[in-house]
Amino acid sequence: KLACAGGWSPLDTDRYQWLQVDLGSRKQVVSIVTQGRYSSSDWTSKYRLLYSDTQKNWRPYLQDGNIWTFEGNVNSEGVVRHELQHAILARYIRFIPLDWSREGRIGVRLELYGCSYWADVISFDGQGVISYRFRSKKMKIVKDVISLKFRTTARDGVLLHGEGQQGDYISLELRRARLQLSINLGSNQYGSIQGHTSVISGSLLDDDHWHSVVIERYRRNVNFTLDHHTQQFRTNGEFDHLDLDYEISFGGLPVSAKPSSGGRENFVGCMEGITYNGDNITNLVRRKKVDTSSFRNLTFSCTESNSSPVFFNSTSFLRLPGQSDSDTLSVSLSFRTWNPNGLLMFTALADGWVEVGLTEGKVTVYMNVTQRKNTRIDISSGSGLNDGQWHSVHLNALENYAMLTVDGDEASTVRTAIPIQIQTGGTYYFGGYFMHTNTRSSQRSFQGCMQMIHIDDHLVDLRAVEQGHIGTFENVSLDMCAIIDRCVPNHCEHTGRCSQTWDTFSCNCSGTGYTGATCHTSMYQQSCEEYKHQGKNSGSYWIDPDGSGSIAPFRVNCDMTGEMPLLEWGMLLWQETFHVSVSFVSSLCVQVLSVTGSAESCEQYVAYACRMSRLLNTPDGVPFTWWVGRANERHSYWGGSGPGIQKCSCGIEHNCTDPKHYCNCDADLKEDAGLLVYKDHLPVRQVVVGDTSRAGSEAKVTIGPLKCLGDRNYWNAASFTSPASYLHFPSFRGETSTDISFYFKTSSTHGVFLENLGTTDFLHIELRGSVILFSFDVGSERVELSVRSPVPLNNDQWHRVEAEKNIKEAVLQLNGQYREFRPSPPQGHTRLEFYSELYVGASSGQRGFLGCMRALKINGATFDLEERAKVTPGVNPGCQGHCSSYGMHCRNGGKCVEQYNGYSCDCSLTAYDGPYCTDDVGGYFETGTLVRYDFLPEVGPFALREVNSLSGVSVPSEANLTQEELVFSFSTSSTPSILVYISSRTQDYLAVVLRHNGTLQVRYSLGGLIEPYTIDVDHRNMANGQPHSVNITRNLREIRLQLDHYPVSTYTLPETSDTQFNLVKSIFLGKVFETGQIDPIIIERYNTPGFVGCLSRVQFNSVAPLKAALRSGLSTPVSTHGILVPSNCGASPLTISPMASASDPWHIEAAGAVFPFNEDKASDGGVDRNSAIIGGIISMVIFTVLCIMVFVIRHMFRHKGSYHTNEAKGAESADCADAAIIVNDPAFTETIDESKKEWFI
After folding, report:
1. Which residues contact 690 (CB under 8 A, 6 or more apart)?
2. Rg (CA), the chain
3. Cα–Cα separations (whole angstroms), residue 25 to 30, 57, 119, 280
4. Is the dihedral of CA 354, 358, 359, 361 positive or negative?
5. CDD domains of this UniProt entry (predicted)?
6. What share of the chain is helix, strand, coil (3-state, %, to 5)?
7. Domain 921-937+958-1126, classified CATH 3.30.1330.130, yes or no
8. Measured at the alpha carbon of residue 382, what is the angle toward residues 380 and 383, in degrees to the nearest 5?
9. What is the largest CA-CA distance in the chain?
């Protein structure tokens, strides 16, 4: 007793000592308190607890699926108290010291706290059944509460059963030592409603220990609790009541059970505390208020089992004596284990040896007879015997044969001949760990339980073994089987498959879409947005919006070409023609709801083609057709319209075929189609078509794929401006498996990202220089992981942190590359299941995080940093500075522009377009077409100076250029022509022309020379219809020319040439139309009839003249003469690796090179080929023009009536009530604007 002199201290201080406490009767123990022996150096620092009702078949106290080790004392006077997570219900308690004082011996003073316990116990012999009759013949029950405790050594048997004549039933039974609950609240006679529901819980329930069961049902919701582990589920079908007739039985099937219910065994064992909807059944049995006539001998006590198990660990063995010099060997035993291999028994013969073991789940017998030159006999039987169930083995060897029987199946007995008669040695080893005694066995030690050990057909008295009267043992636990099913409950998440050995379990995650030790971490990104910022292109991807949450991954199409990625789910969801009234229902997936909830905007195409089938009737009438959206709400607006407006698109835009109606189909004409863009109503899950009863009625409904833009969760961010600032989230659910992920960027070297300050757990993620630190508590142990980055983390760029802890391991990962792993401690995980407070930043006086954090997700749930930041001082919603991490995606000189929730690329000073400045801007020039860009005196110098920071070409402040860069691409099959001509207010000019033979010529005239300086590229025909790129850069006298992907050629202006390009005036593309003096060679040889073909990517320093001409919204001094058709011209040049000059067959200095397309020696084949190319080009041009005309006409008619719906100025400026409704709804306005911007171009 505590605080008293003395205490318990055994004579021997070793691991075989124990202290047993007899409580006098069964008690409910809830806590234990320990103290060292009084005034000594004796105490116990670690211990375990065993408990039993009978001093036999002891059970260890379990927690977290492990045999629990309690932390004891560190001195003799301190008091340590442990509250038991689950109360112990037993009469006898054993205290097992595991570790003790190094200065002294084992010592303890202890007290147990709890309360008295009493319950009526009933023994079931497999014949008796308790039949509890209802007060009325039929019971229609909406709520049930059933509880009982049971104890058995049988692995099969019915615990309770009730049924009704309408097919309802409830049944609880043991199957292979697992508990199965089956409920059916009703199925219809046609089979369209199947109500059968079955749930399995627990395992190894035939261990002869008490197990408690509670079943709680309200309508279709059921809580099924076995030994404190609760499963929640809903029954199948649509019915809520359990209809039972006459009675419910306990211990087996009633006599009135239907024949189909037969074939199941009755329960053998004990039950206590049976209650059914408030009635104490065991008490009614004792008072003889319940029918027990089927019992042969009704007893209110639980008989002890005859079996006495033995528990072996990896260092255990049991040595027992038997008959020696006998010609008969007979050994039998029962075992249970999870390990596929292990030695069960070994015995030495007078000449040889025999061993029985497990090999890959089979029982194998090896007999080695040394008299016959080491004759070896192998036999095996059974399979999959490492399933944790009890299995029996019987080996009999006599005269000249041996027989092996597994699980008493005589039909599968294996028999083999023995060449000589054996003689037993008289000593038998069980368990396998006796290498210091015998080294002949190659089998590994057995880990598991054995019972019913027979040697020479005599049952071994294990009590005598324990008292030392017979045999010896080492590290064996007698009267106990400490087998644990580590796969129940299954810690493998997301349908991962669990397998186990004696010490641990593992998860097979293949085919689940998840990875990690417990299949917790998703293999996929949360959205198209995340794939886009990993540099992925458009395509089909698997996404997992909630990460490790319950929503399974699914495949979508991602379009990465816009400013925000477009997600498309499904190609064509549904299309069908109806001739009768019908309702179409689509499967509404939880995956789709997760996408629409986080998207910036969504849309879905709907179309109704009709013949004598009206759609919406009138705005005030009852609609003939409606659709149901995500919240199961009915909607009577159609594509192109909005909520609350019972009109179609043509009714909003005032362009219906019949102006008296607001839908074309309401006038029995044509079709009504459009986009549904109110994302809170999407997706369409049901369409009801009503007006199909008239003669000749026909309707075709088309539901298109759901399309969504962006991912708000990915950009959900907050900025921490003070080291003392933090965001507080009051309800954070800690679980056995917890994963945390977020992005951060900072210029600070230290700071706490987040921490959990719960009273029962600790979690902390911190930045320390170039190290990310992740620490947390598991039980009484603190685990710490760290990952070091090779680059500074305070570089103001985005970095990603991913941390996970589960029952198997802890993982910390930085930027998807740098990773640390550490096995988790075996104890303490269930303590993580609680609600506590989470702080993003530091709240405990430490230095908090300074910088930006976004996309914080814990266990699949996104934390709304922006909303919390709006009401928190020191923290601002959103984050600036995305360009430092993602600015490299803006290509071709595009400028990255910061936005509130991301970034965009400004392509205005480039020759490109698109979200990343990668889309070619080009045009097709007809004969005589030209583009002219004029530099105004007050604008020209400024525009040219801008290139200083964009293209890297230095331009002086005056208008006279000493360096310039001209870049463009072209494709043509006609010659000669002017590609680019840049004029000046003097006679200086730069011209790039194609000569008659298709070769390129660059002409520079900067003054000081009689004739212009020319660069002739005579070795390449550029008029071959293929795209080519040209890059000309000049710096003073040095000119660098690169064509396509070939090496750069360098040229030098003569010393007499001027180096200034004076007063640049105009840029001409395709043809020159200029007043004043012009080089006559340009006009006479190349200006007529003009360039015919495609030009694209045209940029002179910071000026993009062709882009300015094709983008009418740009206010620039550009003019176009003739027909210029927008086209990208296929302008990407052939991706040919650069060649060395010596190996380039087209290079002018290549030995023996002959130019095949000399204009003076063109072959006939070349003429035919050019003619074919020209014809093909003309055909393509005609086809392109026709397509553009169709597009333009359709565009004009479509937008003719849609002007008012694009206005967002309020109801006072709307031209009708319908438009006012759309304008005044912010969500609707936003989605319409976004959709038109993205998809109506």
Report:
1. 581, 623, 624, 625
2. 43
3. 16, 17, 12, 22
4. positive
5. EGF_CA, FA58C, LamG
6. 10, 40, 45
7. no
8. 115
9. 131
DSSP state of 1061: B
Per-residue pLDDT, averaged over 1123-1142, amounts to 57
Domain range 310-477, CATH class: mainly beta
Residues 6+ apart with CB under 8 A from 495: 512, 519
pLDDT digits (tens, 9 = 90+) for 898-944: 665 667 888 888 888 888 888 889 999 999 999 999 887 644 333 44
Alpha carbon of residue 921 to chain centroid: 40
Phi-psi domain of 43 (left: phi exceeds 0; alpha: psi -120 through 50; beta: other):
beta
Distance, in Å, from the CA atom of 449 to the CA atom of 1181, rounded to the nearest integer, reads 85
How far is 1160 from 996, CA to CA, in rounded Å?
Answer: 10
Distance CA 55, CA 822 (A): 41
Q: Which residues pair with 103 in a beta bridge?
A: none
Query: What does the mean pLDDT of the chain come to?
Result: 82
Query: CA-CA distance, 259 to 306, in Å (whole number)?
Result: 35
The continuous run of DSSP H or E covering 531 comes out as: helix 528-532
**Separation between Cα atoms, residue 213 and residue 1005, nearest integer Å:** 99
On whether the CB atoms of residues 640 and 652 are closer than 8 A, the answer is yes
Q: What is the DSSP string of 705-754?
A: EEEEE--TTTT-EEEE-STT-EEEEEEEEE-SSEEEEEEEE-S-SEEEEE
Question: Letter for the amino acid at 679?
Answer: K
Paired residues of 1120 in beta bridges? 931
Q: At a CB cut-off of 8 Å and minimum separation 6, what does 303 contact?
A: 123, 270
CA distance 557 to 708: 11
CATH placement of domain 716-880: 2.60.120.200
Beta strand 66-67 with 130-141: parallel, antiparallel or unpaired? unpaired
| Domain 558-710 sits in CATH 2.60.120 | yes
DSSP 1062-1118: -SEEEEEESS----S---HHIIIIISSS---EEEEEEEETTB-HHHHHH-TTS--SE
3-state DSSP of 447-463:
CEEEEEEEECCEECCHH
Q: Is the distance from CB of 516 to CB of 548 less than 8 angstroms?
A: no
**Amino acid sitting at position 917:** C
Tens-digit pLDDT profile for residues 515-563: 999 999 999 999 998 898 888 888 999 999 888 888 889 888 999 887 7
User: Cβ distance 939 to 956 under 8 Å?
Assistant: no
Cα three-residue angle 656-658-660, rounded to 5 degrees: 100
Strands (E), 806-940: 809-814, 818-823, 834-841, 851-858, 861-862, 875-877, 895-899, 902-906, 912-913, 919-920, 922-925, 930-934
Q: What CATH number was assigned to the domain covering residues 19-116?
A: 2.60.120.260
Contacts of 990 by beta carbon, 8 Å cutoff, 6+ apart: 964, 966, 980, 981, 982, 1002, 1003, 1004, 1005, 1032, 1061
- For tokens 């399309």, the residue is 707
Q: Kindly report the CATH number that applies to the domain delimited by 121-256+263-287.
A: 2.60.120.200
* Nearest-5° Cα angle at 301, 298 to 305: 105
| Contacts of 540 by beta carbon, 8 Å cutoff, 6+ apart | 555, 556, 557, 558
Query: The tokens of 193 are what?
Result: 């409603």
* Amino acid (one-letter) located at 385: L
Enumerate residues 6+ apart whose C-beta is below 8 A from 252. Answer: 124, 126, 128, 129, 157, 158, 161, 265, 266, 267
H helices present in 156-280, as ranges:
none
Angle at 840 between CA 835 and CA 845, to 5 degrees: 100
At residue 249, the pLDDT reads: 94
* Region(s) of the chain under CATH 2.60.120.200: 121-256+263-287, 310-477, 716-880, 921-937+958-1126
